[in-house]
Amino acid sequence: MIIVNVDIMMAKRKMSLKELAERVGITNANMSVLKTGKVKGVKFTTLNEICKALDCQPGDILEYREDEDEKI
Question: Which PANTHER family does the protein's record reference (predicted)?
Protein backbone atom coordinates (compact mmCIF):
# COMPACT_ATOMS: atom_id res chain seq x y z
CA MET A 1 0.00 0.00 0.00
CA ILE A 2 1.10 3.57 -0.62
CA ILE A 3 1.20 5.84 2.43
CA VAL A 4 0.89 9.60 1.89
CA ASN A 5 3.06 11.65 4.25
CA VAL A 6 2.04 15.13 3.11
CA ASP A 7 0.96 15.98 6.66
CA ILE A 8 4.44 15.16 7.99
CA MET A 9 6.13 17.37 5.41
CA MET A 10 3.62 20.15 6.07
CA ALA A 11 4.45 20.00 9.78
CA LYS A 12 8.20 20.06 9.07
CA ARG A 13 7.74 23.14 6.88
CA LYS A 14 5.20 24.71 9.27
CA MET A 15 2.74 25.10 6.39
CA SER A 16 -1.03 25.08 6.70
CA LEU A 17 -3.37 23.07 4.52
CA LYS A 18 -4.79 26.29 3.11
CA GLU A 19 -1.36 27.68 2.22
CA LEU A 20 -0.25 24.43 0.55
CA ALA A 21 -3.50 24.16 -1.42
CA GLU A 22 -3.08 27.75 -2.65
CA ARG A 23 0.55 27.16 -3.68
CA VAL A 24 -0.33 23.92 -5.47
CA GLY A 25 -3.44 25.37 -7.11
CA ILE A 26 -6.02 22.88 -5.82
CA THR A 27 -8.96 23.25 -3.46
CA ASN A 28 -8.67 22.84 0.30
CA ALA A 29 -11.04 19.87 0.02
CA ASN A 30 -8.85 18.10 -2.54
CA MET A 31 -5.70 18.81 -0.52
CA SER A 32 -7.42 17.46 2.59
CA VAL A 33 -8.30 14.21 0.78
CA LEU A 34 -4.69 13.91 -0.36
CA LYS A 35 -3.30 14.74 3.08
CA THR A 36 -5.41 12.11 4.81
CA GLY A 37 -4.39 9.44 2.31
CA LYS A 38 -7.93 8.85 1.08
CA VAL A 39 -6.98 9.76 -2.48
CA LYS A 40 -7.13 7.08 -5.20
CA GLY A 41 -4.45 8.70 -7.35
CA VAL A 42 -2.45 11.85 -7.89
CA LYS A 43 -1.38 13.54 -11.12
CA PHE A 44 2.35 13.98 -11.64
CA THR A 45 1.74 17.68 -12.21
CA THR A 46 0.10 17.93 -8.77
CA LEU A 47 2.89 15.89 -7.18
CA ASN A 48 5.42 18.20 -8.85
CA GLU A 49 3.71 21.30 -7.40
CA ILE A 50 3.50 19.73 -3.92
CA CYS A 51 7.21 18.90 -4.02
CA LYS A 52 8.02 22.42 -5.21
CA ALA A 53 5.89 24.03 -2.46
CA LEU A 54 7.29 21.79 0.29
CA ASP A 55 10.85 21.79 -1.10
CA CYS A 56 11.01 17.99 -1.00
CA GLN A 57 11.29 14.87 -3.14
CA PRO A 58 8.36 12.57 -4.07
CA GLY A 59 9.83 9.91 -1.79
CA ASP A 60 9.46 12.31 1.15
CA ILE A 61 5.68 12.29 0.77
CA LEU A 62 4.95 8.87 -0.76
CA GLU A 63 5.95 5.64 0.96
CA TYR A 64 5.35 1.98 0.11
CA ARG A 65 4.44 -0.50 2.84
CA GLU A 66 3.57 -4.11 2.24
CA ASP A 67 -0.04 -4.93 3.16
CA GLU A 68 -0.46 -7.43 5.95
CA ASP A 69 -2.84 -9.31 3.63
CA GLU A 70 -0.09 -9.67 1.02
CA LYS A 71 2.42 -11.30 3.37
CA ILE A 72 2.68 -15.05 2.98
Answer: DNA-BINDING PROTEIN, DNA-BINDING PROTEIN-RELATED
Q: Is 5 exposed, middle or buried (0-12, 13-18, 19+ CB in 10 A)?
A: middle
d(CA 53, CA 64): 22
pLDDT tens track for 23-42: 999 999 999 999 988 888 99
What domains sit in the chain, N to C, each tagged with a CATH number? 2-66 (1.10.260.40)
Q: Say what percent of the chain tops pLDDT 90.
A: 78
Can you tell me the mean pLDDT for 59-66?
93
